[in-house]
Amino acid sequence: MTKTPSKTVCIKTYGCQMNVYDAARMADVLAPLGYRPVTEPAEADMVLLNTCHIREKASEKVFSELGRLRQLRQVRIDRGLGRMVIGVAGCVAQAEGAELLARAPWVDLVLGPQTYHRLPEMLARLAREGGAQLDTDFPADPKFDHLPAPGPRGPSAFLSIQEGCDRFCTFCVVPYTRGAEVSRPAAAVLDEARALVDQGTTEITLLGQNVNAYHGDGPDDGAAWSLARLIRALAEIPGLTRLRYTTSHPRDLTDDLIAAHAEVPALMPFLHLPVQSGSDRILKAMNRGHTAEAYRRVVDRLRAARPDLALSSDFIVGFPGETEADFQDTLSLVRAVHFVQAYSFKYSPRPGTPAAARPGQVPDPIKGERLARLQEVLNTQQSLFNRQCVGQEMDVLLDRVGRRPGQLLGRSPWMQPVHVSAPAAILGRSCRVLIVDGQPNSLAGRLVTPATEPPSADADAAPAAAPTPTRIPA
Ligand code: 5AD
Ligand code: SF4
Questions:
Q1: What percent of the chain has pLDDT over 90?
Q2: Which of 105, 265, 279, 373 is most buried, taking the most CB atoms under 10 A from its CB?
Q3: What is the Å distance from ligand 2's center to 164 Cα?
Q4: pTM of the complete model
Q5: Which of 304, 433, 448, 441 is nearest to 385 (CA)?
Q6: Which among 276, 274, 248, 279 has a CA at the least distance from the CA of 261?
């Protein structure tokens, strides 16, 4: 018999998909303690902010939110609803640790991305001793060995297979907040994937900060498996019809991975492959380890393997020392490659990263102006791709309820959101859809014939609306 939930937890997630995955895993850890997830902080006995440190803006949001939570806690106490536990998890917790407690002393829990499996012990200590509990270790014994099996995630799920990064791009905090690159053993990944599929998941996105550097122990002799080998093994799981991986580094796009794009039908024809800049001088200063030309060669090889492959990318404008000529090189690369989706950012100096202390910091108005020019080109490319889809038939995984009545929302193989008028009974299924309209940010389609795949085990449990997270850095 299942235990009746007696407490509520609200986990507010900022940042990348890995944080979305971590939030779901935190909920898995808390479920046996009787915590039921809720979306409104006002209804929660415990609020966990699952934070992002990648840019200053993301990081500063945490402190304004903590101020609001402090007031909310007081309201709850005044109404006799009991004291709300306030916790900070994720990368800001990892980076700021004790300083965070000094700045927001009303916080009860501070825990890093590698220690959330210890939440039950932290809560027990908090109840016993009071006082803030802090755990930002990088334990030798990985958290994954201590996490329970995943709960139901709906038709599309994330699965972390690799964490941390050894590349040390000079702008990036990830090697400091998430630590050194670690891959999970292939058997553990396969087990978690099977558990998700058994509960109705048909699409899995493999996550890692540098996911294509994956080199997990193999199940047989312990010899490491590459990402390509793992993808081939996952594609054998009956019912797992769509696979994706993110985020990749161009330097680690190996021949066997490119071959997998040609040979594994479940591997979707969409790849997020951040380039950051099109200027060789800036790429060198960023310590990216490749030139613009090398990036274009990788793209050519991918497209030769999978002609319908569409690309997305991340860009940073106004990196220290970036001139107008460097920026023009970025625009040229964008025009040459053609991206169907992209994330672009003004460079944000992050404490402790090499580029933050460099001369030649670019004034904010110049960053803003370059960002607008870059986004105009990227938006045009995205809109064009979406318009070109009109008249095509494609498989759409209908994974959530749309905003309008009678409407479901799904994803195309190329990650475009697709609105479809469809009965709620087919929520969770992959269906053949004719695209009838292409807007800048989404498509609209008509059902052709429902596909033959079984619906998810519990279609009603599919998420009604999930936030679209930002990308994992790479
Ligand atoms: N400033 C601006 N953008 C950054 N990114 C990472 N670090 C910074 C920074 N300091 C961007 C990169 C990365 C994406 C997730 O965030 O483009 O790929
Ligand atoms: Fe690693 Fe990506 Fe950050 Fe570079 S941008 S250090 S590859 S996580």
A1: 89
A2: 279
A3: 9
A4: 0.93
A5: 441
A6: 248
Residues with Cβ within 8 Å of 60's Cβ and at least 6 positions away in sequence, in order, are none
Cα 431 from chain centroid (whole Å): 25
- CA-to-CA separations, 280 to 295, 333, 428, in angstroms, rounded: 11, 11, 44
CA of 229 to the centre of ligand 2 (A): 23
Q: Which residues line ligand 1 (CB under 6 A)?
A: 54-55, 171-172, 274, 276, 314, 316, 345, 347-348, 350, 471, 473-474
339-352 tens-digit pLDDT: 999 999 999 999 99
Q: Which amino acid is at 240?
A: L
In the prediction, which pLDDT does 342 show?
A: 98
346 backbone dihedrals φ, ψ, rounded to 5°: -75, 140
User: From CA 363, how far away is CA 379, in angstroms rounded?
Assistant: 24
Per-residue pLDDT at 5: 55
Contacting residues for 421 by C-beta, under 8 A, at least 6 apart: 406, 407, 446, 447
How many other CB atoms are there within 10 angstroms of residue 412's CB atom? 24
Separation between Cα atoms, residue 159 and residue 282, nearest integer Å? 33
Give the tens place of pLDDT for each residue, 184-238.
999 999 999 999 999 999 999 999 999 999 999 999 877 999 999 999 999 999 9
Around 165, how many Cα atoms within 13 Å sit in the side-chain half-sphere? 25
Ligand 2 pocket member 175 (CB < 6 A): yes
Helices vs strands, H then E, count in the chain: 12, 21
Region of 189 (left: φ > 0; alpha: ψ -120 to 50; beta: rest) is: alpha
Q: Structure tokens of 218?
A: 């193999």
What sign does the CA torsion over 300, 305, 311, 314 have? negative
Of 314, 322, 350, which is best to mutate to test ligand 1, by the most ligand atoms within 8 angstroms of its C-beta?
314
Nearest alpha carbon to residue 91 among 62, 70, 118, 127: 62
- DSSP state letter for 438: E
Mean pLDDT, rounded, for 70-87 = 94
Q: Please report the domains of the chain, with CATH numbers, ordered by start residue.
A: 7-135 (3.40.50.12160), 143-386 (3.80.30.20), 389-461 (2.40.50.140)
Read off the tokens for 408.
């479901």
Answer whether 230's CB lies under 8 Å from 256's CB: no
Q: How large a percentage of the chain has pLDDT more than 70?
A: 94
pLDDT at 469: 43
